[in-house]
Amino acid sequence: MAETLDKREVVVVGLGWAGSIVAAEMAKAGKDVLGLERGAEKKTEDYLLAHDEYRYVVGHEMMQDLSKETITYRNNLEEEALPMRRFGAFLIGTDVGGGGVHWNGDTWRYNPYDFEIKSRTDEKYGEDKLSDDYLIQDWGITYEELEPYYEKYEKTAGVSGEQNPMGPERKMPYPTPPMKMTPLLSDFKAACEAAGATPFRTPSGNMSESYTNPDGMTINACQYCGFCEKFGCEWGAKSSPIVSTIPVAKQHDNFEMRTHANVVDIVKEDGEVTGVRFVDTRTHEEFIQPADVVVITSHTTNNTKLLLHSDLGTPYDPETGEGAVGKNYCLHITPSVTGFFDTEYNLSMGAGALGVTVDDFNNDNFDHSDLDFIHGGSISMKQQGKRPILENAVPDTVEKNWGAEFKAESVKAYNRSAGAWAQMITLPYRTNYLSLDPTYKDDYGRPLLRLTYDVTDHDRNVHSYIGDRIEEIIDEMNPIAKNRSVLDEHFDILPAHNDHIVGGTIMGADPETSVVNNYLQMWDADNVFVIGGSNFPHNGGYNPTGTVGALAYRAAEGIEKYLDDNGPLVED
What we know:
The chain is an alpha/beta fold. It has a single domain, classed as FAD/NAD(P)-binding domain (3-Layer(bba) Sandwich), CATH 3.50.50. The protein is 23% helix and 19% strand. The protein has helices spanning 17-28, 53-58, 99-102, 112-115, 117-125, 143-157, 183-194, 241-244, 246-250, 300-309, 404-413, 457-475, 545-564, and strands at 3-4, 8-13, 33-36, 71-74, 82-83, 199-201, 211-212, 218-219, 255-258, 261-269, 272-280, 286-296, 330-331, 336-340, 355-358, 377-382, 417-424, 433-441, 447-452, 481-484, 501-502, 528-530. The strands form 5 sheets. Strands 1, 2, 3, 9, 10, 11, 12 and 22 form an 8-stranded mixed β-sheet that branches. A 6-stranded antiparallel β-sheet has the order 6-15-16-17-14-20, with helices on one face. It has a 4-stranded mixed β-sheet with strand order 5-4-19-18, with helices on one face. β11 (272-280) and β12 form a beta hairpin. The longest helix is centred in the C-terminal third of the chain and has 20 residues, at 545-564.
């Protein structure tokens, strides 16, 4: 029997970037807010001496426990989905801060074209540019409307960067200057220019200098130790919820954080949402938490799963096209080329978002009239800090990944090889979606989330084109050998593709084709807000975190308005 707790104004489910932003903003506004996090509380000091590649990168120390809660996947509607037993194509974080603690720090604004991709594509290239199987749609918001919230997130996170020459002109400079240049990145920058592209420094959540944000939180200067991706920052120099937003919420007595609290259902009475049900993961006790407003701010997969379990919204049906919950799932695909050079670089030093990027082949920055795809991808080389277990590239001419030749070549190539890759557009496709599995269940007896996903012809066309552009740039660096990635015929969940999955609770202007409005408020339950990468109708040519942060700030504004206006649908 679940114990019913005292009612709160706002309950926030998940304390990653999105949830911690909402919690901090609600606390500052004087609202009574409870943050529920299924993992443990973590602070900067918990990551001291945590430079253990096997534990954190191979063993996925900071990720969801797949033995208790995983997903199933299949490539098409005819296949039986099977459980994912280890992480590969994406990572689901756990503990306070979520993915905002183990991320690399790349902090982008999506392009104006992304937010109006359907209308702009139709206007410029015609409605028959893509087949109807590609479910592109406008986001229900414009870049201009979201820009103030991008600025607010960047100030909170202290983002280091410079003006993108191919992007919209910034109204304000980045809060901190770009990160350092290195010999490798200088050579890549020169190669980009020789290839006719316009390079600039990658916008970074790793601080180029010590920074104090508008809430008074100090983020330290990056030490370039090379342990960002899949690690928490022991220096407090990578912007994350545990150094920027959660401490702000905790300054207010009207905020409470409850850890080891796994939310399993959104509770309804007489058809109206009244709160959530959660399980204490240590004692297995169940609790009902009543609330005026429920804010779902978990991982893309778990946001969608929670709505499906709670029978909120209409599940997407790929056969009829009806419904929107689970629709428009997209995975980032990353074409890449690794070059092997005579020059030796110090590649152990680095940072997660220490890089140089070109945007010449991204968004609609080039003419697609005679091309068999739209959009493109941002091409970057980053010096993240090489690690010895998983980062030991050798030329393709080395036939075996073991033995004396492999060992000798990997030692030689360790500081003489580097890759450039693209964050590539992936468009939603009719049969790529999320649903509940009819067979497999999680540790709580609930159906697992089922992923149905495969690569599309559009993916293959973009991958080929962008791969050519990357290779042209690497050729300007005069490599002695190079390896180019190959896109497999079918999606496989185990190889590491990328960690940027979106869709499932998409935003839009039409309740028939979206789950939430542009304040991320559910059409079908106006006291429920769903925030995260799950809101994206497609995957653009950038990492999603900056856009998640901006959307979270706008949603917080909407939640406050909803509470102050006594509950109507939030509209402009």
